[in-house]
Amino acid sequence: MEMIDRYIYAVAQHLPENIREDVSKELRSNIQDMLTEDASDAQIKEVLEKLGNPAKLAVEYNPQKRYLIGPGVYNQYIKLLKLVTGIAAITLGCIAIFTGVFNFSDVQKPQEIVSDVISAAMGGAMQGAFWVTLVFIIMERSGVHEGHSPFKNKKWTLEDLKAIPDYGKKKISRVSTTVEIFFTILFASLLIFRPEIIGVSLKGSGFVPILNAEILSTYTVGIVLLAIVSLGILVWKTIYPYWSIPLAAANAGFNIATAVLMLFMVRDTNIVNVKFLHLLEDLTNLTLSQVTLLWQRGLMIFAAVFIIIVIIDSIAGVFKCKR
User: Fold this and answer.
1) For 109-159, how does the pLDDT look when each residue is reduced to its tens digit (9 = 90+)?
2) How far apart are CA 233 and CA 139, in angstroms?
3) What backbone torsions phi and psi does residue 248 show, to the nearest 5 degrees?
4) What's the distance, CA 128 to chain centroid?
């Protein structure tokens, strides 16, 4: 009976919550009708394998047919789509407001700021919708989110039927996933679209960007790729909100890639805006070369701390799988 329970559970996970209970009862009744009263494990296995992959069987029970995004992940897709588009719209809208305020006295009128904010918010929502949809399509088609080898056309068997999970400490908090989504969108948006608003205003010098936007643009491809991978992992966490070895491996790989990009960026002495270094020079009794050296050392310390954090996070992900 445990095998039947696991099969029914697997089917139900690919259905909307409001019909899971009814479908589970109906499916259990159908399975029992296909079995004799004293059915052996071999007979149960034969019946379940005849019914086939739970994800495909769920399609037959789901009254709402989907095409681009399959029914197994459609509900999670809608939830994440609303969340990401909302966060992206608000984040880019706020960035546009911030940019407009700092440029207000020079070039922009109030109506221009409003127009820019609306445009940025709509653009953010569209970008969020596009990337969420793309990531869901790739993950669903590849089967990666279910722990399969990418794009491996493997026939489903009972060996693929997972035990009903006892989440415990393996469960991933929805709140933590939402926070990660927010910061992923925030940092990616700032570094890709508006690096010039990352800066300081000291000693009546006006606003001075910290980063050299021209040099930073050479790292855009890496930043975009990491943002997409991060979003993919967050989609994974949304669909199956508990730690597993494949998820922990993906998380560790992402952490390593992020750390490598971080090292390249902090070792690039030209990535810091020269005007910002001159501002620090004016605030201290140090020469420009001394300020530059101290700033580089500070960046290296920051990179070292960041690497330690990602190592701890990667190891923690593996340990959470075993709890």
Assistant:
1) 677 778 888 888 899 899 889 988 888 888 777 765 555 544 455 566 677
2) 10
3) -65, -40
4) 11
Q: Where are the domains of the chain?
A: 1-61, 71-200+212-242, 243-322
In angstroms, the CA 220 to CA 217 distance is 5
SS3 readout for 176-242:
HHHHHHHHHHHHHHHHHCCHHHCEEECCCCCEEECECHHHHHHHHHHHHHHHHHHHHHHHHHHHCCE
* pTM score, whole prediction: 0.68
Reduce the secondary structure of 102-119 to three states and give it as a string.
HHCCCCCCHHHHHHHHHH
Of 248, 188, 198, 249, the closest CA to residue 222 belongs to: 188
Query: Residue 262: what residue type?
Result: M
Half-sphere exposure of 304 (CA within 13 A, CB side): 6
In angstroms, the Cα distances linking 121 to 126, 189, 197, 219 are: 9, 12, 17, 24
| In the chain, % of residues over pLDDT 70 | 85
The residues with which 211 forms a beta bridge, in sequence order, are 272
Helices 220-239 and 71-103 cross at an angle (nearest 10°) of: 140
Which residue from 10, 132, 142, 124 is spatially nearest to 78, judged by alpha carbons? Answer: 132
Instruction: Phi first, then psi: give them for residue 145, nearest 5 degrees.
Output: -65, -15
Other beta carbons less than 10 A from residue 59's beta carbon? 15
- SS3 at position 171: strand
